[in-house]
Design a protein that fits this description.
flat, 15 strands, alpha/beta, about 25% strand, about 30% helix, about 350 residues, 8 helices, four-stranded antiparallel β-sheet
Length: about 350
Amino acid sequence: MSFIEYRDLVQNGDTVLIYLSISNIYALKITSGKVFQTKYGALKHDSIIGKRYGNVVQCSRGWAYVLFMTPELWTLTLPHRTQILYTPDISIVILQLDLKPGKVVCEAGTGSGSLSHALARTIAPTGQLYTFDFHEQRVSLAREEFHEHGLGDIVIVQQRDVCAEGFGLEDAADAIFLDLPHPWEVIPLLNVTFRHSAYFCVGGRLCSFSPCIEQVQKTCEALHTEGFTDITTLECLLRPFEVKEVSLPHLHLSEDTLNEKRKISLESQDGTTDIRKEETANINTNSLGGTIGDAVSFSKSNSKRSRIENSMDNVCEPEWSAVPSMQIPGHTGYLTFATFTHS
């Protein structure tokens, strides 16, 4: 199968997404004769082969959806060999690096391959991704996954200590991504990696992912020293909203209601003036030794004003509304971007 080229029917050997619920999704490599156990019972691989993507497949005690795998869905279900970048950060990286089909990208820190799949799809079919990792086993597993997912011609995986040896490429990259504990050590080696020309100034964009602000500070200092420009650091924070039923003032805007409110407003203005006159008279009378009846009149005037004010209040009714969640997911990392131009 290929994460790049969509097809309608599931075939033996495909990696598909099994969707049981929003919190129960699984990546599954289809192998004839095997059985996958779910909370809804056994799901036979043979019952999936030949099905159309998006259709329902039957389990022994329920059902599930079989979906075509994409880089975004792979990010949610991949086996974690390292910490990964998720779609909000990945989308910013692709936008800021100005990637499109045909671009050449160098990635230091393959890890679990979450970002690599998204980069490969963006630059396909004519682009090239060179991704490096110092861990031999991670390199081997990543190479196998790229081949199974139909990205073998686009992604070249190599084991290499980039901080000590550089990328080993010259005049090649349009963009470079660094996911390293000490990115400032490799920055002085990047100028030969970026694409250049004898006739006009060429360079490229760089992105460095770091979880700590101290790493960002050292990286920015190194970028400035090496002549990079447009140095910017971004942090992407997800703010979820929950749909809840809440009490909100309900505005009745029909013509009859508006006329009634105008009438109440006019009565309120006239009534308030009369009430104030009554209050003043009553207070003066009481101060001169007025009777108990004057005090009763003063109390009634206050009651009248209270009824008028309450009639102007909007009635609260239950409504469905999007309310910001009280709990916001925590920090993942900082994305530092810069531009390099050959002089």
